[in-house]
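Q: What would this chain look like folded?
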Amino acid sequence: MVAVTIGHNVYLPSIAKESMRSYCSQCGFPQATCLCQHLSSIISPVELVILQHSKEATHAKNTARLVSLCVEKTTVYSGIHTYDFNTAQTHIEQSAAGLVYPGENSQPIESTAFSDHPPPLLILLDGSWSQAYGLYQRLSWLHHLPQWHFNHAPPSAYRIRHTARGYSLSTLEAAAYALQVGYGVDSRPLHQLQQAMQEQWRGPVAHQRGK
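A: My prediction, written as structure tokens:
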């Protein structure tokens, strides 16, 4: 099952909308939790490509689609098998890309190695730690790309999704930090959008971080 988000358009498999609830045609959220009034566009000097594990595509609390709603030049490719990402590979190989992933040879995004030559295309992996690791292992063509990690990222403020790793960032927070530190972009609209999503969230409290 593959879902692709291009620019500000979200395309999800029909299983994501099996219920009879009415959805907003712009943000893709249920009308009761529509986020359109909280959207502010970020003009980005870098193209963001998000490689998303297929299990995240229909997850109601996934933040990758929030990034695509807010940041211009964002593309999300979703899948699990190698062939699901053939189009993504072609897309990425047309540019000098960098990958946000804490690999053995990754360098800090806060370093001059990044600021001296910031990549025009930046890749993020969307999923749990194990899902992101699985994507990285399957997509061997990512391994030769320059890799970057965060040394001084702030604690996550994404509380509505439980994780055993207290230092984990949401995909939105990772994108926001990369844009701010690596490219000097004001990423507050992203944080504000994530906060708005959390304030409107109607799920169980037990699912929240630290609960």
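Residues 171-183 form the longest helix (13 residues).
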